[in-house]
Amino acid sequence: MFIYNFKFNRKALVKVLFILVAIAITLYFCISAYKIYKNSFKVKDEIDEEQIMYLTAENYTDILKSVHDNIDNYIGKKICFTGYVYRLLDFKETEFVLARDMIVSSDIQTLVVGFLCDCKEAKNFDNESWVEITGEITQGTYHGNMPVIQVKKIKQIEKPNDDIYVYPPDDTYIPTSAIF
User: Fold this and answer.
1) What's the number of domains the chain is made of?
2) Residue 105: inside a domain
3) Which backbone phi and psi does 85 adopt, to 5 degrees?
4) What is the DSSP letter of 142?
5) Which residues contact 104 (CB under 8 A, 6 or more apart)?
6) With 0-12 CB in 10 A as exposed, 13-18 as middle and 19+ as buried, what is 140?
7) What pTM was computed for the model?
């Protein structure tokens, strides 16, 4: 029969445990610092899909109104929507409104509404051509401060068969004809 006699040196055991815990904490800290350092220099050219706000015919004017009324809350937000290219005479070569026709009366009277967009490839798209854009909301100027979409992606699409019209935002909309 074998008998083992173990003697524990408590001071040595505490030192060993202290050293192991210190090494684990240091290792965890180094790994965390490396991940933070590595990600801080990462250039992200692609727009993360989950961060994009998609506009539809149903929410188009609600979001348009909200962004115009509270621009500071939306600066830097990503946005994706479709519409047709609409230009005014005093626009720059890179500017256009990505527009939709908003129905303002029961006899199908419409008003052009949309976001001002800034895009390097704008000259490649004719007036009234339908496009889909993805971009970022910034603050710009056109006869005063207003939201401007800095276009990151743009592609031409076919004119949709349905959902080409949008409707006034909620119940708070007052038609301009009632003001004049």
Assistant:
1) 2
2) yes
3) -75, 130
4) S
5) 110, 111, 168, 175, 176, 177
6) middle
7) 0.65
